[in-house]
Amino acid sequence: MILTDLLQNVILKKYAGDTDIEIADIQFDSRKVTQGSVFVATRGTAADGHDFIPMAIEKGATAIVCETIPEEKPEEILFIEVENSAEALGQMASAFYGFPSSKLILAGVTGTNGKTTIATLLYKLFRELGYKAGLLSTVVNYINNKTIEATHTTPDALELNELLARMVDAGCEYAFMEVSSHSIDQRRIAGLEFNGGIFTNLTRDHIDYHLTFENYLKAKKRFFDDLPADAFALTNADDKNGSVMLQNTRASKYYYSLRGMADFKTRILEHGFEGMLLDMNGREVNVSFIGKFNASNLTAVFGAAVLLGQDELEVLRILSSLHSVAGRFETFHAPAGYAAIVDYAHTPDALNNVIGTINQILQNNGRLITVVGCGGNRDKGKRPMMAREAVDGSWKAILTSDNPRFEDPQEILNDMLAGLDITQRTKSLTIIDRREAIKMACALAQKGDVVLIAGKGHEDYQIIQGVKHHFDDREEVKKCF
Q1: Which parts of the chain register pLDDT below 70?
Q2: Beta-bridge partner residues of 81
Q3: Label partner for 50 (CA 20 to 30 A): which of 195, 222, 288, 361?
C-alpha cells in the first residue's frame, strides 16, 4: 500500500520527504520488520519502541513513525513525527486492512466484571437470530463458526484489525468484542468505528497497571467519550459509576437496571441452582443462568440486542435457550450430592457477588467451601481483600495458588492471610498446591453443600516461574467426583 493512504486519519506533526511510497506492511515489533516495512515506535510499559528504531532500519524499514525523531538518522529513511504513536498505529492498522470496522455493526463491552458473558451471549444470540457474526473475547475468538485462540482480552491494533477484516471476508454482519482498560489506555482500539458501547460495572482491578482507581475509571470512560453521535451507549444504572461513564458521550444514552427505573428493567421472580425466572420489561422469561450479576448481564444483552434493531420477543425467546459461558458460574453436580461451581471471579467484588448468590440460594440449607487464590506479579492490594471476602462468606475458605508467575506462592498466601484476624483464620486453610486444595474442598463437602472454585474459570493453565503448565479447575473437579 501507499504510505499516504495509511496516514489519512493520522495527525502528523512534522516529516521530511515523500509519503507517496509503497510499503510492505506495518510493524511495531522491530523483530518482525522486513524489507519495506513501516515501523511504528510505540512506548510500552516494559520497553520503548524508539530504542529499537536502529534495529528496524537495519532490518529494512523504509519509514519510521515516532513521537520523537532521533538526532542521528539516515537521509534515505522517511521519519514521521506524531503526537501519539499508539494512536497512529491504530489508525494505520485500520486503513491497512480496509477499515473493516466500518463494514460491520460493531458493539464493545467494557467494565470490570461481565464483559465476557455479555459479549459471548450477544454473539450467540445473533447467530441464533440467523446472522453471521464474530466475537473477540478473553476466552476465545470466533469468525462466524470458526474458532480462533484468544491471547489477550483485546488484541493489539494490527491483530485486531486483521481479525475484523477476516470477519468481513467471511460475510459477518455483526461483531461483538470485549474492550479492556489496557486496550483503551494503549489506544489499541484507535481507528475502530463502534455502533454501540455497553458498560457493566467498575470495581478494583488492574491497579498494578493504572496505579489509581481514578485512572482506571478514566480509561473506561474514554471508550464512551470517543463513541460517535450515531452510536448507542448502554450503561448499568445500578453501578455508582454507570452515569459517570456517559457524562461526556455524544452517543444516545440508555440505562439498564435490576433496582430502579431504566430503559431495560429486570426483576428476579424465582431463582435456584438450575436457573431463574425473570421479568424483563414486563415479560416473564426462564433462563438457565444463576445470580443477580447474571440477571444484570442478561439485561444488558437484551437491551443491546433491542438497540441493534432486534424484536424484543424473539430476543427473549432465544435468551431462554442460551447457557452460561465456560468458567462463568459453571455448575457441576457430584454423585455424592454436593455441587461444585467454577467461576472466573478474580476481584473482590466479583467474588462477593458469586458468594452472595450461592448463599442466597442455599438459605443455610448447606455449607459453602471456597477455594481461591491471587495471581503473582499483579495487584497486591487486593490479596487481603480477596481472603476476607472468601472467609466471611464461606463455612471454610481454602487459600491456594492462582498463576503465581514469578512470585513465591507462599508469599502470595502470606499477603492474603494478612487480611484476616485470628477468628477469620480459624475458618481458613492454606494449601499451596491448587490440585490438593480442590481435593480437600471436595473431601470436606457433604450432601447439599457447594464447593466454589474461584479465580481461573475457563483458564486451562497455571503459570509457575514463567512456565505454563496445563491445569483446568473443571477437569480437577470431575476427577474428584
Answers
A1: 153, 204-211
A2: 14, 66
A3: 222
